[in-house]
Structure formats: C-alpha cells, structure tokens
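Whiteboard transcription, Tuesday session. T.W. wrote the structure tokens on the left side:
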C-alpha cells in the first residue's frame, strides 16, 4: 500500500530564499519571475504585501514540492487582488505533482478570503487542471483568459547563422539603421540613466504611467549577473533602449522603448538585432519578445524576426460572485485620461507615473 502524501504549505521569508531559488532553478517549468528576489524588488519599490507560499513534503523544512508567489495589490480605484505575479506576463503555481498544486491553490484561496480580495490571478504558461478540482462556493467564479501569446524565438548556434536566416528585407532594415549613423552599446548600472530617459519619454508619448526607476535599479542590483542594459544612440544621444534578463536558457526583454523623433532612423531594428545577437553569442537557446495580442502591430513586429506564438493562460478565481476583466477595466480608465497624460511635461510624469503604475497589475 502506498503511503499517504501529506503536503504542508506555509508562507516563507528571506531566510528560506536559497531553498526557494534552488527549487525554482531545478523545476523544468520555472521562469524568471519565480525567483525569490522579485519579492524583495516589489516590496521595496512599491510597498506591496507579498505572500510567498511554499509546499513541503510531509512537513519537512528542507524538501520543497511546490511554490506560489503572490502579491497583494489593493487600491480604492484599481481593486483588491492577489496576483502571481503583477507587472509581468508569467508566474503562477510551480509544483511537483497534482496534490501539491491543489494544496497551494487551497492555501491561496484561504489567504484571499482572509485578505477579502475580489480575485486571485495566476499567470501560467500552460493551463493548470487543479482549478477543476476546487469546490467553488456560491460566491466564487472561475475564469481563464488566453487571448494573449508569448512570442518566443528559437535561436541558432551563432548570431551569424541567425542573421543569415532573416529575409532580405529585414536584413536591409538592420543595415539601414547602421548606415544612418546609429551605434549601440551594452552595459550595466552605468547605463540606467540613459535607459530611463528613453523609457520615460516613450511612456509619456504612449499616454501610459511609467514604472519607477527604482524598480529597474533593483533588478540590476539583485540580478547583476543576469541582466544587462542595451542602448542605441545617435551622436551619443540615446534614441532606443532596453533591459534584457537571462534565466536558464532564455533571454527576455521585459522593458524596451524608442523615441519617436528618431523613428526615421529605425533605432528599434538595431536595438532588437543587438539583443538577439547578444542572446546567440552568449549561449541562450531562446529569446522571449514578451506578450502580444495576435495580429496587432507589436505581434507582427515580433513575428518578422521569426518569433512563434505560445499561448498564455491567465487563470482567475473571483471570490465576490463576479468577474472583472482587469485589462478592459484598467484600459477604460486610462482611455479617459490618455490624451491629457500625453500633454504632461516628462518630469511631471516621472513623479506621478510610478504613483499610479504601482497599482496596475498589467
């Protein structure tokens, strides 16, 4: 007769960060946002309460069987929710087996009820079946959104092989940006100011509140061995910039921007080529272009590089008898103010932006 599997779930703190990260690195389905340092980054930057749930086999203090990072976002305008994890495309439950997965989900529901949240959001790269095993009360609802995709490019063994695989039109666009006098450089924290100037201005032009510079600063500090900053410049003036972050065999680009005044020079083309070149020449097997909506402009831009769409499954448990479409709800709020925001001076958006952005889970 097989022994009964007992799963013990508890909230852990920084003292257990090493066993948490060891588990994250060892699990085949883990992504960068499962690492423990994101708890520190989000807490210190935005002050949100974080609850990192760890499942232990038979109550062991050292043997993890699953993890679930949860961030509590609560604001009178933007709602009250637990998200795994906000600001990024992926997170969610990571577990060895179905029993652990369900134990983590059950504990998340208990936590959600204790915090009186409206919903719990799990951002997965594949659909988790544990939600079908949860007994929903009359006031609870389950929903899943998979209209967004993750754009992944499988990389060859060298950047030379990659550029040879591109269509001639794409190669011409890259060459054009270089002929127009654009140059690039890659580095660390010393390039953060240049990056943020471009990022801040671009977000203002898009009418979107900007993330705090401290968020990127802490990413560069805590992940200094895995993150780099890329700058494309014209006559030493930054015109496009990005932050790249490596985890296992994937290099991803969580933030990138370019300035509209330089659009005729195609700085974006050189920026993305340099990121891909870096990924190939540093042994990464995939480049993650990030989240897109099929057939929209950013989707087609990423597709031209050879990126393949992979579905994202954002699974929700709504605890108050109704489902709120976070993206539609938040976009409707911003649509009202977007034109006004675009007219604000950039220094003003640098102050106001992070105060708003911290409360938006997308």
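and on the right, the sequence the group agreed on:
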């Amino acid at each position: 007769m097989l022994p009964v599997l007992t799963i013990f779930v508890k909230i852990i703190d920084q003292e257990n960060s090493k066993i948490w990260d060891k588990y994250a690195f060892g699990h085949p389905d883990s992504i960068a946002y499962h690492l423990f340092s994101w708890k520190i980054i989000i807490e210190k930057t935005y002050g949100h309460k974080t609850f990192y749930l760890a499942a232990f086999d038979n109550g062991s203090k050292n043997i993890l069987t699953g993890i679930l990072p949860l961030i509590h976002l609560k604001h009178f305008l933007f709602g009250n929710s637990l998200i795994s994890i906000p600001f990024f495309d992926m997170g969610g439950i990571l577990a060895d087996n179905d029993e652990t997965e369900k134990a983590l989900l059950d504990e998340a529901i208990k936590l959600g009820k204790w915090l009186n949240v409206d919903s719990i959001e799990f951002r997965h790269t594949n659909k988790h079946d544990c939600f079908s095993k949860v007994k929903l009360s009359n006031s609870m609802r389950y929903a899943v959104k998979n209209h967004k995709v993750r754009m992944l490019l499988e990389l060859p063994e060298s950047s030379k092989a990659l550029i040879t695989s591109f269509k001639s039109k794409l190669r011409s666009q890259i060459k054009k940006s270089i002929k127009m006098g654009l140059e690039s450089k890659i580095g660390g924290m010393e390039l953060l100011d240049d990056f943020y100037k471009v990022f801040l201005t671009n977000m203002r032009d898009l009418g979107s509140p900007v993330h705090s510079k401290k968020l990127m600063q802490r990413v560069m500090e805590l992940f200094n061995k895995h993150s780099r900053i890329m700058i494309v410049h014209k006559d030493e003036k930054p015109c496009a910039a990005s932050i790249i972050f490596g985890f296992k065999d994937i290099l991803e680009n969580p933030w990138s921007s370019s300035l509209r005044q330089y659009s005729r020079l195609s700085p974006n083309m050189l920026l993305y080529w340099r990121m891909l070149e870096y990924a190939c020449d540093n042994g990464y097997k995939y480049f993650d272009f990030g989240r897109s909506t099929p057939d929209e402009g950013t989707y087609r831009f990423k597709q031209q590089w050879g990126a393949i769409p992979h579905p994202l499954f954002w699974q929700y448990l709504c605890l108050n008898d109704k489902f709120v479409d976070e993206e539609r709800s938040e976009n409707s709020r911003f649509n009202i103010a977007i034109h006004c925001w675009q007219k604000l001076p950039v220094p003003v958006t640098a102050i106001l932006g992070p105060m708003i952005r911290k409360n938006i889970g997308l």
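Someone added at the bottom: The chain has two domains: 7-146+313-324, 150-308.
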